[in-house]
Amino acid sequence: MSVWRQLRTIVLLPGLALVVIPAALLILTGTFNPAWGLPGTARILLLTGGLLVLAGGLLVLGHAIYLFHAIGEGTLAPWDPTRRLVIAGLYRHVRNPMYVGVLLAALAEVILAGSVWLAAWWAILVVGFNLFVRLYEEPHLRAQYGAEYAEFCANVPRWIPRLRPWQPDR
Questions:
Q1: 38-68: string of b/e by CB count within 10 Å (b at 16+)?
Q2: What is the domain partition of the chain in residue ranges?
Q3: CA-to-CA distance for 125 and 170, rounded, in angstroms?
Q4: pLDDT (tens digit per residue) in 26-83
Q5: Between the CA of residue 48 and those of 55, 101, 118, what are the distances in Å?
Q6: What would the pLDDT profile of 76-96 be if each residue is shown by its tens digit?
Q7: Calpha distance 165→158 (Å, rounded)
Q8: What is the pTM of this model?
């Protein structure tokens, strides 16, 4: 699989959600109030926390994309999906680590930029991802992978990670 194929979907999807739209919101609204304008130590703690959440979200997203490429032989894009169901790494803890990673990174942007507009964008992402997963992705994956996906859903939560990784009976 080509690097260009992977990069194109990464730039288009997470890039749009985490860079283009937030930047446009900040520029168009003129709202940029780092750490919500808190003073002194509180500001430093909030900015540090925001950077840690951002790093964590990007690591989760990157790991999920790598697994889609290496194991699933596909991309994160719905029009270029994996050829195999990925149940490895973070996917043994939570069914949607890619979305979780994007949501964590977007939440970090809210914290770092101190913008109600980014907070509204984050809320739209939460609702949009949930609707997309429930109404399109899960029915599609059930049809594609059948019992294997049903067992995965029965054992791995959609959004809140389980502490111990699930061990499929394979």
A1: eeeeeeeebbeebeebbeebbebbebbbebb
A2: 3-155
A3: 34
A4: 999 998 999 899 999 999 999 999 999 999 999 999 999 999 989 998 888 888 888 9
A5: 11, 18, 18
A6: 888 888 899 999 999 999 999
A7: 14
A8: 0.92
